[in-house]
From TrEMBL:
One of its GO terms (cellular component) is cytosol. Gene3D superfamilies: Glutaredoxin (3.40.30.10). The keyword Disulfide bond applies. GO terms for molecular function: protein-disulfide reductase activity. The gene is trxA. InterPro entries: Thioredoxin, Thioredoxin-like_sf, Thioredoxin_CS, Thioredoxin_domain. Keywords: Disulfide bond, Electron transport, Redox-active center, Transport. NCBIfam families: thioredoxin. Residues 1-105 form the Thioredoxin domain. This is Thioredoxin. Pfam families: Thioredoxin (PF00085). It comes from the Bacteria.
């Protein structure tokens, strides 16, 4: 699958969908972003069952601000609409491949149960 260009119009619909979505927040002037771009693109070609999207933080400043991006590149992974990974900095290809495998292996029923438990405790702490 080709890498999607994500904007404020299609970001939410893309990441909240079923399945896995990796999002790369980047800018053209960013050296580490340019170094990570071929790694991201190669992974998108190797994993057509996964969505890969890029957000140009210069063109989509509002989206970058809403996502609280303070340094780039920032990589996010969503699975079934849940943010399961977020990290700033470029990943080497091997580390990115390992991350993809880890996200694929997640037990989403367990993660949803953990989120529900945290939400149930939140009012008690307030």
């Amino acid at each position: 699958m080709a890498t999607l260009q994500l904007t404020s119009e299609n970001f939410e619909g893309t990441v909240l969908g079923e399945g896995i979505t990796f999002v790369d927040f980047w800018a053209a002037w960013c050296g580490p972003c340019r170094a990570f771009a071929p790694v991201f693109e190669k992974a998108s070609e190797a994993h057509p069952e996964i969505r890969f999207g890029k957000v140009d933080t210069e063109a989509e400043q509002g989206l970058a601000m809403a996502a609280q991006i303070s340094s780039i590149p920032t990589l996010m992974a969503f699975r079934d609409g849940i943010l399961v990974f977020r990290q700033s900095g470029a990943l080497p290809a091997k580390a990115f491949d390992e991350l993809i495998a880890a996200v694929e292996a997640l037990d989403m029923d367990d993660i949803r149960a953990q989120i529900a438990a945290e939400q149930a405790e939140a009012p008690a702490q307030a």
